Amino acid sequence: MTFTYGRRAARWVAIATVTGGFVALVLAAPSSADSWNEIITVDPCKKPWTQLCKNIPSWDTHYSTRSNVWITADPTHCSDIIARVRIDGRVVGSDLLGPGESTAAYRVPAGEHTVGVQAEGVAGGCNRGFLSAWGGTVHFQKLGAEQPIDGPNGE
Question: What 8-state DSSP symbol labels residue 146?
């Protein structure tokens, strides 16, 4: 009798494991397929060096759905930075980041846009009054249903 109970329990554990794994795979697939990252390396910032790095790495987007963008500072930074996220040249937000920290997510509308990031140094650590280089990762993630990006008549 114990042997039968053990087989039945093992069967239920196997079914639960396979079902749980399938559900996790189905739920994870859309988010992993609709997100991507780009490495940022600004070394050196344009001279004359100040706290505000004049280099603004940017990416052109042309997506038929809204997306989020956020920045993660390189974990090897030896001082903090203020990351300014720009969409079409306009600053939409900024966050103080320590090494390896991320900004909030900022919404990018559907359509064609330029997303840029500008860093400002913060005195302390190895920063002695100017920012000479910085790096990190920009993350993009699509959101919501597809939307037409052309005009109502396909223009």
Answer: -
Verdict on whether the full-model pTM lies above 0.85 = no
**What proportions of the chain, in percent to the nearest 5, are helix, strand and coil?**
20, 40, 40
Distance CA 71, CA 140 (A): 9
Cα angle 73, 77, 79 (rounded to 5 degrees) comes to 105
Q: Count of CB atoms within 10 A of residue 145's CB?
A: 8
Q: Are residues 25 and 77 in the same domain?
A: no
Domain span including residue 29:
1-33
Q: What is the pLDDT of residues 141-153, one digit of tens each?
A: 999 766 555 544 4
How far is the C-alpha of 108 from the C-alpha of 117, rounded, in Å?
Answer: 13
Q: Is 95 helix (H, G, I), strand (E, B) or coil?
A: strand
